[in-house]
Amino acid sequence: MGKRTASEADARHAQGVRHLKRQRIENPAERKPVNGAVSQEVTTGRQLQNALIFEQGAASNFRTGLNLLKDFLDSILYAADEHDLPGKRAILREYLESQRAKAREDKATQFLHDLIQAWEYAAETNFDALLTQIVANLALLFRVFSADPQCVEYGGLLCKAILQHSVLRRLHWSLSAMSPKETVISPILRLLTEMTKYNEGAHAKAIYLKNDFTLEPRALARNLGLWRGPKEDVAPDHRKPTVRTHTVRYLLTHLKFQDEAAKSEILSNYHVIRGIFDHLASDTPSLVLDVLDVFRDHVFADKAVQRRVKSRILVGKTLSSIASLYRYEVPEGQAEDDQRSPCVAAHKFLCLVCTSPAYGVMLPSSGYYPPAREEDDRNADLEDGTEQFVDLHFGEEAQSADGKTRNVILGEFIRSLKPYANTAQQELVLAIFKACPELVADYFAHKEAFHYDPKLTSTWIGYSSFLYQTIELPVPDHLAAKRSYRQQPPPFSALMQNILPQPLTQQALVRCLNHSSELVNFFAVRVLIVAFHKLRAILQELLSAVEARSSQLWKQTTRRILNDFCQRCPPIKAIIIASRKPTFQKDMMREAITRLWRLYYEITPQVALQEKFDVSIPLCNALAQAEMPASSPEDKAFRVMELEHWIQIARHSTAMRWWQRNKSLQYSPFTTLLRLMANSQDAELYSGVKALLVAISQEVDMLQTSTFPDALDALVASLSVPSGSSATSSHALEFVDDCCARFVRQPIKYFDDLDTLRAKDAAVASSLGPISPLLVTLIEQWPFKGGKAVKDNSAEPIAHWLSTFLFLLKLAGEDETLLSLVRQALVETSNPAHQSVLGDALMWKIGKQRAKEALKLATGADFSGSERSSISPVPQEEAEQPTNEFNTAELELPPEEDEKHSGLTRWRRKDIEESLEDGDIGALLLCLCSKYTEIRLQALANIRQLMAKINESESSDLLQLKLLLGEVLESAEPILHSRPLPYVGGVFAAHASTVLADPSHFMFGKVNEFLMKKPLWNVEHLPRYFGHEIINSKPEQDGSYHQEVDWYLDYLFDALRTSADMEIYRTRNVFEKLLSYYASGSCAISAKEKTVKLLLRAAAVGGSTTLITRCGVISWIQMRLESNDHRRQMLRLLASRVYETCDEEKVDAWSSGTAKERIALLAKVGT
């Protein structure tokens, strides 16, 4: 038969005659999707068993059964009615039990044999739809098993069945199927994920051992690259999961549940780990968060994973992939928490792993030093150090620094970021700079130059902020040396790049200061201010190193840093010109430029003094501004800060004249500052002005400063409350201003006059106290104001001020004899109208009370109604009388109850461990012994709250404390409503809590042994029990016997506070045992002294009669004295104290009147 012609074929086709092919053996309908089946309700396990019988010729029926199983499992997982769940789970267990019985009868039959057999058939015949259904149902079964504890064993059987070699071959075939077959690959990955995490990873190790099939690297790496781009009309988390998504979740599950060896093996595969991070920016937000969380918690935070394994993960490519999440945008309509968005999570992850050597990417940093010196942290040869002291400047010399940064990966990574465009990236770079200071110089040396020319753009503003915060980073201690300063300083360029980074050239900064934009001006000033502060901090470290090492290299570096900074910062002329611009006339701007000016004078005076500048004019303007009323407290604060800056500038200026009046000021600058201090209502606001006035007055030695308050405090207080006025008198200020100016012009003359004044009383001239030399000038100038021939009303306020000033000087502690001579001189030359005022200068008058209060308020001195300061050093202190060997004041009376009861609340302010160590919990336990019922009940409630807090902490270290608190509650609660817990119990609980805080304590074992005996204490039995366990038993630790005895005696002494405690001691024969122990050879000296103190405490709480009549303490003391006891003074004191506090009638009756005589004889025994 020949071939058909084209015309025949077309004619046959036109007639609709179909060409007959070879007939298919299997039914084609079996491979069609089974979607039209009517859903049935599963009522028995037999129904599932019949529906899931697999026959090769009836695959469609089996697929219908699989759909029935899927619907049934979905109804369990997503049940609409919780009441139906137990019945459905019982049906499922019935079906699973039948399958297990079948496998038990025929050992060759696997668990769920029909499903496994159908899986193999589908894989052999490429029946992808059937294979997908089977695997999806198996994954659902694992999810159902995980939710039902009664199905755990079935999950284990299913895992064993799937991990058979024949099934694993089929599984691996599906896992490595062709890329388009996503419907085959994804179910397999879901099944493996559910198997791995099933039962908290119980079978994860078994799955890993089959890694040739389950974790084949090539298949996983290929699957990690199977991702789809986002669709505009579908939100990322609502798209169908891709093969990559399932593969990533499968690997994350292994990282969660595998041990460190398996995790290390998985992480060592570079292609797989790289595949996880390469397309991270295209993943859904939930998957991104899962990746970062798992790697953070189960890889990098896992100390069992070696550091070298972690370092292989965080290579430059990985860091860049994570950093790409900074641009991750969450689609609109998705409710993403800002704190859990991918960009925020990536930022926190990078800040964590890039700032600690424990996470692999960061190598230990040596601060400003290059890595070549990292191991040489002790002493180095000076010749090598000189060779390394190379001028590593910017530009061409920066190239010589290549390879000298140890953290190369981090250095390349941060250069790929844009800190000027993204605040989160800026925070990351700054965090890396803080952890690795060496990277600052490397960054600016290798980063493509950014011209810092002033342009008011977002990029320039962001870059300015970045430079500011980079300079603001703290200077490491010892410049990052491990123990102390090294023999050589860090490279010069590393230090300079941290002070003034490369873009901040002198030309760029000057252009910024002269720019027309206020924001640009302000940024330039801020950057310069922080650069000066950084320079000061580094210079302080360098100077400390010079003192520690005495090396010429450190001195050369110090000078060179300062000289280079002076060359790179703007000249002072540029600052002066900028300060005159209208931009810098506003309060905040003016304060900023003045602060910068001040730093020039303080840190780089060689630059500041290059231009001649009259500081008095701006200082006077600042003084005038400070006196003017402000519209807001902020404006007032800015003006005061500006004034302090000008004052400091004036101190460093050689041309400043403090005592000369200016045309714009009524008084000289010094007197104007005095008036500001006197009229100020807020002394703290002018603290800097006060320090300056003290320094200026000390320079000319005008006012004495040897007392507190000193003469300057008295002068300010005298000017603050003038007689009959609410403001400082202008006449008094003019008089003070004139006298100060005269004293400064002729100081030697007035010192001679002071010596003449001292010589008037030659008898006591050598013992005279301090005096202010300014008083001599006041004596000289007073006749011209208030003399007999002067008739002027201005003299009256001056006279009142002089009287007040002399009175305050007397209060401050100046010599009263000399002050009397000054008063006498003033009265003799005074007009009769003012003599009475000056005559009472050293006496208290009602008008001087305000001045006294002003001095007290300004200095904090307490005059206590007297005429002399109670803290003045002038009165000579009497020599202390020698104290006795034994201070009875501390021993006679027990401590009184704290009326504030701070123990109720103090424990809440700290962690439990800290409260335990600080004794706060012990103070809370002592509140159970309070005499106030409400305090005891509050303590009871607080202890319960403390126990609840311990339960929440779940700390095993606090179990003993919880046990102690529980036993205290059980012992105290029945009696607290009627009476307090005896101090014998409360003090023991407090002391025991201190012991439990330290497991190495010598009493730790015995206290725990007592707590384990019973949950309820017999409080009265405590002294006797521990007396037997400590004194009559061997110690827990070798050599701790005497420590235990001392602890026991301290406890007895602290617990003996009331007569009720004394009664407990009496009934338990505590004193009899201690008196006999005192005489034994094993009693240490410290124990003997504490025993005597305990007896004195017993006498203080009303136990003297008991000690005499029941314990025979008088006879015991006599025996000890006759034995030449070294504590004779203490024993005699005890004897007299016991008899003084006893019931003398009862004791005399008991002793037949001989007790008093015996006490008198004890004074002679042993002498």
From TrEMBL:
Boundaries of every URB1 central HEAT repeat domain copy: 653-848
Protein name, as recorded: Ribosome 60S biogenesis N-terminal-domain-containing protein
Region (Disordered) location: 1-41, 863-906
InterPro entries: ARM-type_fold, HEAT_URB1, URB1, URB1_C, URB1_N
An annotated GO cellular component: nucleolus
Organism: Lophiotrema nucula
Domain (URB1 N-terminal): residue spans on this chain: 112-463
Annotated ranges, domain URB1 C-terminal: 922-1116
GO BP terms, alphabetized: maturation of 5.8S rRNA from tricistronic rRNA transcript (SSU-rRNA, 5.8S rRNA, LSU-rRNA); maturation of LSU-rRNA from tricistronic rRNA transcript (SSU-rRNA, 5.8S rRNA, LSU-rRNA)
Feature: compositional bias, Basic and acidic residues: 1-13, 23-33
